[in-house]
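Could you help me review a protein record that somebody else here produced? What it holds is a sequence and that sequence's fold in token form. I need someone to confirm that the token line plausibly describes how this chain folds. Take the sequence as given and treat only the tokens as open to question. This is what I was given:
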Amino acid sequence: MKLAVLSDIHANYRALEAVGADIDDWGPDVVVVAGDIVNRGPRPVDCLSYAQTRAREDGWLLVRGNHEDYVIRHASPDAPREGPLADMFRASFWTYSKLRGDVGPLEAMPYGIEFGAALDAPVDEDPERRMLRLSVLAPGAGLVRIAHASMLHNRDCIFPDTPDDDLAEKLGTPAPTLFCVGHTHMQVLRRLNGTLVINAGAVGMPFDGDPRAGYARCEFRDGAWAGELVRLDYDRARAECDFADTGYLVEGGPLARLQVIELREARSQLFQWASRYEKLVLEGVLSMDASVDEFLSA
């Protein structure tokens, strides 16, 4: 039994094509996209369409990430359309506009997927926490759980150095045999008691200094799960050109400038910007443009 998990595409169509082709060559039985298909990148429509086509034709399963949530929120009547908060979320509004406001496909994605969950497992009351429960992947494979970040929240992180006690809480109960996530853009392969824990990293925008696209291969053989973290070269020059060619670099707001650097250097920029400047922008002390200019000149 072979399972491929990919995550954090972030509208990078060039990387998605490369990963999709490699997955086809490997020939898994099941493929799960663990969230963040759209947003934080220049080709959301192409990436969502690709994922939907693979879901329809090849059975790929799609999970909602926090960046799907960011885009969905723009459909709310009270979503900000002007002022500092609107300026801060201009990139996700650009994505929302490119999707023509149709967030239905994003809302339909479950919070996570469980293979082999108990038939009497409780029904999720909160639609945003809805788990898709499916039959076992293979005899003896146990409970397999896949979410975007963790079972605590779709922005709750699993890093290589997450302490064991904290990690145990993030796996959910009962503890699965295999637990796969993304979100941090950093790959992880570790075991905690009887659970193989895998962070698939990022297809479109890794943050570990290696700009190659990443995903995870999981295989159940000889009565146990094994994992492999894959990295792939792709045409990153064309991916960077997409930022300008699609208009995203200008229309997506000042933070799009930082996202190009994230793509190029494979290091997070938005988190560092937010920790220094988000409060100042929201208080009107600095404009978005001025805050990004100052961040880049530091």
The mean pLDDT is 95. Residues 44-58 form the longest helix (15 residues).
